[in-house]
Specification:
- The chain is an alpha+beta fold.
- It has a single domain (9-125), classed as Roll (Thiol Ester Dehydrase, Chain A).
- It contains two helices and six strands.
- It has helices spanning 9-12, 44-60; strands at 15-21, 24-29, 68-77, 87-96, 100-109, 115-125.
- A six-stranded antiparallel sheet has the order 1-2-4-5-6-3.
- Strand 1 and strand 2 form a beta hairpin.
- It starts with 8 loop residues before the first helix and ends with a strand.
Length: 128
């Protein structure tokens, strides 16, 4: 099982890898009008996908070489996101155990650091 890095979803989400080291990662996102809901805000599922795609680099930076997948994601949407906002996803692995890892991830507005959404994610390690 060879991972595709970056994943194909990076193109869809207009993602740009910034950094990843020691269980912490940053990814920049540039949402578009096509990602909005009927009220003109970026749709919540898109924001969740952005956060999930920030978790991946944080997990890979652990260098465990074990495949993994997200099994739970508790998401909190705190502010509306405009398609003109440039976002920064920041993920930190809180604990990586034998079978799973807990990761905190947040999306901020890059221009002022305002917190827009936050999630707690559980990833399980898969059998090779």
């Amino acid at each position: 099982m060879t991972p595709r890095i970056p994943p194909p979803t990076y193109a869809l989400l207009h993602a740009e890898f910034v950094s990843a080291k020691d269980g912490r990662a940053e990814v920049r996102f540039r949402p578009t009008e096509e990602m909005t809901n009927p009220y003109g805000a970026v749709q919540g599922g898109i924001l969740a996908a952005m956060m999930d795609d920030t978790v991946g680099p944080a997990m890979f930076s652990l260098r465990s070489l074990r495949p993994f997948t997200t099994v739970t994601m508790t998401t909190h949407y705190l502010r509306a996101v405009k398609p003109t906002d440039v976002l920064l996803g920041i993920a930190e692995v809180v604990k990586a155990g034998r079978t799973q890892a807990l990761v905190e991830v947040r999306l901020t507005r890059e221009s002022n650091g305002e917190l827009l959404a936050k999630a707690i994610v559980t990833n399980v390690f898969l059998d090779p």
